[in-house]
Structures are given as C-alpha cells and as structure tokens.
Model the fold of this input.
Amino acid sequence: MTTLLEVRGLSVAFRDHAEERQLLSDIDFSLGKGEILGLVGESGSGKSLLCRTIVGLMPSSKLHLDAGSVRLDDEEIARLPEAGMLRIRGKKIGMIFQNPTSHLDPVMRIGDQIVEGLRFHRGLGRTEALEEARSILGQVGFPDPARGLKSYAHEFSGGMRQRAMIAIALACDPEILIADEPTTALDVTIQAQILKLLMDLRAMRGLSIILITHDLGVVAQTCDRIAVMRHGRIVEQGEKRQLLANPQAAYTRELIASHPSLPDEEHRPLEHERSHVRPIFEVDDLDVAFPIGGGLFRKRRDFRALKRVSLQIFPGETVGIVGESGSGKSTLARAMLGLTPISAGHATFDGSVLTLEREATLKRLRSEAAMVFQDPFNALNPRFTIGETIAEVLRTQGETPPERIRERVGELLDMVGLERNFAGRKPRSMSGGQCQRAGIARALAVNPRVIIADECVAALDVTIQAQIIDLFRHLAETTGLTLVFIAHDLAIVRNLCERVIVMHHGQIVEEGQCDEIFRSPREDYTAALIAAIPDIDPDRPIGGTAVPAELQPA
Amino acid sequence: MIRRSALSLAPTWPRYISRRPMLAVGAGILAFFVLIAIFAPIVAPFDPILQDPKARLQPPSFAHPFGTDNFGRDVLSRVIWGARIDLQIALIGVLFPFLIGTVIGTVAGFFGKTIDTVFMRIVDIILAFPFLVLMLSIITILGPGLSSFYIAMALVGWISYARLIRAQILVLKTQDFSVAAESLGFSRSRIMFRHLLPNALAGSLVFVMSDAVLVLLNGAAISYLGLGVQPPTAEWGVMVAEAQGFITQAWWITLFPGLAIVTLAFGFSLLGDAMGDLLGVHE
Amino acid sequence: MHRFRFILYRPIQFIPVLFGISVITFVLVRLIPGDPARIILGTRASPTALANIRAQYGLDEPMWVQYLFFLKNLGAGEMGRSTLYKIDVLKLIATRIEPTLALVAAAVILSLLIAVPFAALSARRQGRPTDHVVRIVSTAGIGFPPFWLGVMLIILFSVKLGWLPVSGYGNTLGEKIQHLILPGLTIALSLSAVLTRSLRAGMIAGLKSDVATAARARGMPENIVFWRHVVPNALVPTVNLLAINIGWLIGGTVVVESVFAIPGMGQLLVRGIFTRDYMVVQGVAMTFAVATVLINLLADILTVALDPRVDLS
Done:
C-alpha cells in the first residue's frame, strides 16, 4: 500500500500572555491509499485538533504549530501559506463533521453548496456542475437527487443531512476524507447506514479515510488500523485486530474494558421473583399527545408522543427502556412521574392511580420516586452549591432533622463516591461525571423506592459511563432500589438491566428478559437495533449484514 | 455545549478590572457623574440659574470654560447641575419598569396558559405604539413635567423587562434542573423565585444598562420638546432646546450639554457590555 | 411558496391588535380632564356645535356606548377635526405622511449603508485596532441624542459650511432630497450604531461558526466564506432588529422633525400636544400604531424570504 499522508513529530501548543499548554505532542502516523484509520479518544484527547492542524484550520490564533511535518503525496504541507492550502483543502483532503445541522449552510440550497466546490476546485460551468452534483447526491444515497439539489438542509433528517455533507465533501474529489465523529449525533440504525456508505465509497473510489470517534466499536468494525489518543498523544497504534486482541497501553485496555458491548459476566443482573408482588408502576393504555401548530385558522393537530402504552414495573427490578430519538421513552418517564399531562389511559404508582387521585399520587411520587437526567450540567441549578442542592431536597422532604442535614449530605456524597468537600462546589467547577454523581446524590436524598434515570450516561465519556453504570448496579444490589433506566444505547442496558422494554414511534414493540431479547429478538425492529450496535468485535459486520468480500480490505 | 461563565475563572477583583478596560472606564464615567451630581453646589463655579446680562453668549474662556448662554449663565455650572436631574431621570425611569416588569414577566412565564395569553396580547397592543408616541400621548393627558414622565415610563417601560424575563423563564422551565425541582416536590413559589428567577435575572440586569441609555435619551428628548423638565431648571435636553435659537452665534451652548449626555450614555453602555461578558449574557 | 401564505391570514390576526389600539386611543382622549365635547371641538366651540358633537359621539351615553360611537365614526373615516387647522384630521394626516415616510426610508437606507461595511470591517479584523475603533464609536453612537446630533449637524454643515439647508422640506424632488440628507443622517447615525453592533456580533459568530469551518475545509477562500456564507446568515437577525427598533425609529422622526421643522406627522403630533389639538394627537398616535403593525408584517415577509427555515404559516 502506498503511503498518502505522513505525519511526523507534530506538536501544537496553546499560548497566550497568561499560560502555555501542550495540546498535541509528537504525533506520528501515516495513512495509506485506500486505508481507513480510526482515531479513537475521549473528549479533550486532541483528536479533532489533530485533523484541523493537518488541513491548517486551527480554531484559534493562540494555537501554535511548534514542530513536525505533514507530507501529502511527498509534498510538505504543514506550513504552507493560506493560498497553497486552498488547493489542498477540499480538493485533496475533504472533511465531514459531527453535527451536519450546524455545518451545512441553512440559507443555501444543498445543490448550491455542492456546486460551489465543483466550480471552485474543478472549474466547471454552472450547468455541468449541477449535473455532476446530481450524480454525486445519487451516489451518497439520495432517493431523488434532482429534488435534493433544490432543498435546504432543514428539510432533511439527520442521516440525510450527513449524506449531504458527504456529498459536498466528495464533490471536490478528494483523495483523503477526514470524518470527525460523523455518526455521534445519529441514531444507531442510521449510524450503521452512514458507516456502510463510507466503506462503500472507499471501495468505489479508493478513498482514504481518517475516522475520528470516541466509540471503539465504530472503529473496530470499519477501520483497518487504529490509533488511540489521550492527552494529546498517540498512546498506541497498530493493525486493528492485533491492537484489540493484544492492547499494550494501559489506557487502551481501560477503553476496551469500558466498552459496553462486552457482556460483563461477573455482574449479571439479579433475577427477581415477582409473581405475587404488586407492581410499583403500572401503566395502562397510556396516551400522551402534544398540540402542535394550531391557531385561529388551523385545526389544532396533536402529536401523539405515546400511543396506548401498557407496562408494569415491579419493586426491586432493574428495567431498561430503549429506543431511538423520538421513540417516546423520555415522555413515558415523565408521564409516569406526573410531570407531563396524560391524554388518555391510566398510570398507577404503587396502588394509587395518578389519573384519578392526582394530588395524593403526586405527593407520594415526590417522596418515593426520583429522577436522574441526561445533561449533568443542565440538571443542577448553576447558582447552588452541591451541598445547598441536596440540603434543599432534605428540607423539602422533611424527614431529616435540621441538625442532621449536614451529616446526611456528607453520607449521600459518600454513597455516590464524591469527596465530602464537593458540598461546597458549584456545578460549573466540576466535570460531567462529577455532576452526574451529584445528580444521583440529589435523587437519593429523597430516599426513593424508585429512580428513573433518563439517558443519564449519554453525555459522558465511555470510561466515566462505565463508572456511573457501576454505581447504579451497586446501588440496586445493596439498597433494593427499583431502577428504570432509559437509554438509546442497548449495550449499556444489556449490561445493567434484567428486563428490557423496546420502544418505537411511541409504542412498545417488544419487552422481555434482557438475555432472551438480545439472544432472540421477536420483532424485526428490535433485531435491527441490536444488529446496529457497534461491537468491539472486528469480525461482526455493521448493521447485521455481512460486508461483501470485495469490500473487505485486502 | 455547556457554557461556563467567566465568573468562575475570575481572579481577584483589581486584576479582573485592570484586564477589562471597558469595565474600568464605564464604572469610572458613572462614578464621575454621580460625584459631580452629589457635590454640584461645591464643584459648580457659578449659580446655574443666575442670569448675568453683562456676560451674554461668551465663548469658552478661562472664567467660563464652557462659555455662557444667552442669559449670561455659566454653561459649565448648568451642565454640572444638570447631572443631578439627568441621573435621576435614568435611575427612576429604569427602576420602576424593572420592578414591575420582573414580577409580571415571571408570573406570565411561569404560569403560562391564560395569564400568559392575556399578557402577550397586551404586550402586542402596547408595542404597536411607538414608544415615544405613547409616552407623549400619556404626557398630553397628565400635563408636561418630570413626574408625568416617570408615570409614563412606569406605565410603558415595564414591557421590555417583562418580555425578557418571560422569555428566559420559558426557556429555564424546560431545563432539566427545573423539571428536577418539580419531580422533587418543591413548591411552586420555591421553584419560581429560588430556582428560575435568579437564573433569569442576569439578562435583564444587563438590559438595565442599555435601558438606562434609552431612558436618558428619551427623558432628555421629551425635555427638549418642552414636555418634560421646564426651564429655567438646568437639564441637558432643556439646555439644547434653549440653545437652538443661537446656533449661528454660539455653538458652545449646544455642544457641551450634548457631550454630557453622550458621555454618560457611553458609561452606561460600557458597563452593560462588561456586565454581559461577566454574566455570560449576550444580547 | 406556501411559506408566504401567512400574508393572507395575517390581516385577520391584526383584528385583536387593531381593536386594542382603538381602545387605547379612545381611552387616552377620555382620560383628559374636562368636558369631552370641548376637548373634541376646542374651547371656543359654539353651543350648537357642542350639542351636535354630543349627538355624533354619543357623549351622554355610558362609556361603552361611546366607544361604539367612536368605532362607528372611525369606520366612516371620521377622526374628528383639528381645532388648529380647521380641517378633518384624516385629511390633515394625509398631507403629512409623505415627509415622515421619506424620512424613515432615508434613515433605514443610510443606516444600512453605514452599518454593513463597518460591521464587516470590524468583524474581519476582530481584536485589531480597526475593530476597537469601530466598537468604541458604535458603542458611543448609541448614546447620541438625535435632537442634539441634528443641531450639531446643522451647525456644521448648514451654518459653518453652508452646504445644506438648515430646515424645512421643500417642494421639488431635488429640494426634498437636499432637505432629507441631514435629518436622515441624524437618525441613521444612531440607528447604525445599534445595527453595527448586532451585525458585528453576528458576523463574528458566523466566522467562527461550523458553517464557515465547513466552507474553509472545502478550500473556499476567506472572501467567499465571508460574503457567501457568513453575511447572509448574519442579515436575518438584523432584519428582526430593525423591526424591533421601528418604534424607536418613529420616535426618532418625531424628535428630528421638530429639530429640522419638517412638516411631517411627528411635528404635527408635538404641535398638537402644545395646542391641545386632541383629535390630531389621537389620529397621529393611531396612524403610527397601524404603521408599526404593517412594518412588522413587512419584516416578517423579509425574514421568510431570507431564511428558508422560517415558516410562519
């Protein structure tokens, strides 16, 4: 394989009048023609900055390229003047990004954004360029390319927007495509489609790809080689199978161990006997509808977020509710807790019917159930210290005598593994993982029988995710807490929960024991969801269907 | 992603200010005007309304650094005394709208539904009238004068604060920490005043500064039109109005009171910008 | 073009606002202390005229019936008579609309001509001396009182340099344009300060935005990135800002017409207040309110045209 891009000894530092920080240190790697290199690391590891540095688009003038070389086709491009970089960017090295919604120009037609590159880099006339743009949109999987050309970004779904961004990048016919977390914002089934598209394009065009991701599963299934980054260094790199089978660096081992796709044998969830117990939550034919539009002249339409949902949750159980974005899983949680108006059906909490005796049930819910949220920063009042936040709950619940509150706050912090001095800190001086622990401590302050955790690890790095999951498992095992765990990530649910409920378009499509469902899903939708989970096993194909032999790297 | 305010990184105050010239200059200007307003009797060289027929329309000189007007009054002394009135206009003209608007906006945003609909309709209607036109109409009824101006401000000025706070509350209400507060059984008033309002206030505190500029300009404009502060009281808008008959002979009578308004307004604006940076609020 | 369909519905949505406007103007006049008939006709009205007006406005009826009479008169295009000019208020206003409209248009055009280049200059050189100068000047510019700025411009350009007329409006188109330059500039300078600040902020955000990064990553030169991707996105909020400031802009014309003695609606209003010509005050306030509503509709149309994401239907 011929080497296309070679990076040697690259170092970047942040420097202003006050401080100096090394952001990238001595980066070495190379990329062969037609190769896919996976660049893996958690947030802040410098993987995105590395790619921006390669194309000379450092995000701030306070960043300085101190040392190193970048050779593209044997031409040094590391310190090329801006004019020189214009013929590299886009034309030689294309880029796609995590969030297609913010990277596509909202007020310019998709077609015009593709044509822009074609005319600038390839000097085509307008009609020629439009013709070419149409064929590219077809290649990336637009069902109606002619219409796609005339549309704006907001008219498409997230997956189609990412396809549009790929089309724009491909228009300039680059040799290398840098894909910066291209599927992180997408649902798993869409993620699998986009990854497949990238692999197809590599096969068709001989494209070389640098795939930046935080998900070891994504690289395991798509890349030829992997480079693991941490704190601005490449801690380890090598051929995919070899690296996964025999990781050398301790951090790589930690990343692999944290990846939720590995079933965790020592921690199989407890099975509960529940045939004679009264369910703690019971939902019958629940409908939740939100009015949309509506006005003086337009009939009010309802968006039905939940359609005839029925379920039971028993004391001491750990239940996972999974589904893609918009499946109604968060709405279900809020409806069960009386935080969202119910349109039809019944919700019962431990024998009291929310829809009939609203005030009484709410009173019980507020003192026996608690919630943990997705965005750990947003879930805490930014103006309160953690101690104030927890103490406020203790005071409202009124079970802790005032003189015991300080002590109790300390105990709760102990339970979630935070130092007691965190009581004096505010959310903005804490990391995401620490805030999430504080959020769990606040939930525990209620002394609840049930905790509903809504996507509570989705915003966290994998190693932190694993720690929070461990914390929940520990709490469930030691305190007999009932846990309803809502997630889009099936792998996490498989590790933590004994029972799983799968939701799609506001309905429950399947439910059952975790083991059973994952082993033999009855519904096609569940099967597709499970197949789309990026697995750390490189021999499992993405999306469940085998990658054709001709597309496999030689 | 998650916005972290500069506050947490703020070093000690003196260093903080020295790194932010905007804040230093803005606070300095405001302090300067407050001081000369308080000590006007001491710092003003002449009586602001004492006429001196022998010293009419004198250009700036050593004795009269800003010159004299058509009645022979010292322009510098009148500008200094004017600071008292104009600072008062800005202060009172902002205070009542701020208080009224904050309460109405919080209630409308928090309770939503009918209260909010009624509120928004009233806002739509009042906003259809250009601010100054509505002010002038109210002053027509109440008769010219400073107290009419304050009443008109209180009747009309709260709208901006109420809208600002309402919009903030509506956003904050959907955020997880207020859903959390509800799920934890906190009372409505606790959620409204302890959790939502303090977070919503940052934006309107910054707006107080730009509003002070608008109120100052409006108060001076209404006095210029002859419907606010009445002569011979020294007020900057009145001074510009009185000077207009003499623009061919004495530019200084017009120039200096105007510069005073511009400088004071500049101080408010700088302070507002600095506060916006500090609190992480951007208009 | 279904996104523009709201233009058809909007007039019906105006109804509650127009209703509110009529209530407020009605109440304002009734709040004036004194005999309403004399307030409408002036102090020197004859007893027969007073009796007629009482019948026409139903002044002996309860307040809500009076309001219905008021609406009925309004529907017939009857806004009362000016006690000063001795003609119908509606006719009087019709003769005064043109100068005000011309002044507002001149101010908006001039302020955009000033704001866009300066904001662009400033945003593209963020943190450098040019940027600091533009920022300081635009921050200070917000605090320039229009009445004072107008007088200063007269002193400089009319009195000292003699380039432009001191005041008035003129009769021919050429004269009118000459007479509009200074007043237009007076308002535009204040308005452009506000616009420059917002445009600059929008452009800086745009230059740092993902859209710009993506354009650079496909090799677009900085000029294309700026004018083709950053500016169109920054203009959308500016249109809204203009609409929000329209009330303020009209307030500016009221003051500036007084400064430059332009025979427009603003001058009419101020003179009406001084001469207790209440029907004129009422008529002008109502006209300004209706104009504001229409201008907001115009801004909405412009926003929909500029931003394909906005759908007001």
